[in-house]
Every structure is written in C-alpha cells, then in structure tokens.
Amino acid sequence: MSDSYDAVPLTAASLAAWREEVSAALAAVTRGFEEKYGYGPGENAIHPPQEDDRAAAERLAEESPGFADLAVYYGEIGAVNMGDIGNAYFLRSGAEALDERLDLPEAGGTVPAVLIGSDGGGIHYAVAGDGAVWRSRRASTDSGFVRITNDLAEFLDLLRRSVHRFVESGQPGFV
Length: 175
Description:
Layout: H1 12-30, H2 33-37, E1 44-46, H3 51-63, H4 68-76, E2 80-82, E3 89-91, H5 94-98, E4 101-104, E5 111-119, E6 124-128, E7 133-136, E8 145-149, H6 152-169
Antiparallel strand pairs: 1-2, 2-3, 3-5, 4-5, 5-6, 6-7, 7-8
Helix pairs in contact: 1-6, 3-4
C-alpha cells in the first residue's frame, strides 16, 4: 500500500484495480473479526453496477463536465458498503446518487452537487459540479461542507488508504 496520492485519471482499468485491492483488504477485515471485536462483521462489499447505475452514469456525464469522473465511476462500480471500516463508509449506487442533489454555497455560489455517500456517523460526501469532493461539517446536509479532495480519484484513494489503515492498525480512516 502506498501512503501518497499520485494523480491518476479514473478509467475502467484503474477502478477495476481499486475494486480488487479494496475488496481484498475488506476480506482481510472480516477474517477473525468476531474473535477480535466480540460480534460478527457487517456488510463489507463493493457491488457491481446495475443497469440503472449505468443509465445514471450516462445522465451525469451529459449534465456537467465536472461529473465526468462520477460517470466513469458509476459505469464500473455500484454501491459500496464498508460497515466495519473505522466509523463505516457507504457510497451510494449511481441510481441513488442521481436523485440525491444539493447546492454547495461553499463551492462559490450555488454549485450543484451530487451526494455520493456518508459515513456511519452521518457525515455526507458530495461531488460538486467542478469534480471536487466535499464533506459535511456535521451529520446534516444543512451543516455546511468543506472541500476535502480535488477530484473523485483522490477521494477513492483516501478510502483505499483508510481500509488499509484499519486492517493494519484498527485506526479510523482519512475521510
């Protein structure tokens, strides 16, 4: 596992590699989980996209150039459930995300954004029209957002690193 982020454009191949690496790390989390924590693991899986996720990807690609990475992502990956990683991470499927919209005043006016997921404490993650990923300050979409990465690829790298960190040390993640 690399601790640094090297900008890599999202492609079907890079997402396949991400899915494979993260899936293997998630499997490592579940081995011996009950013995270590005293209860069974929840769902920790990366689901393939469904047909409606792919249709949502096409609609997002047409909507804004900033959503191009989202379109590539949802063409290759469906819902992501990491219920036992840190405080948990959940990424919506493309079909769900397409319907989860908000405006981010912090992004410079009222910039349209797509809510892509949340953590187990209710913190929300959104991709703005410029492609940057934003995190809610509190467990509410009304609490304001802060920019955490410049693009979706960097956000996915933080999630990847978060899974590895949890496997290695039991410590929560980076997002």
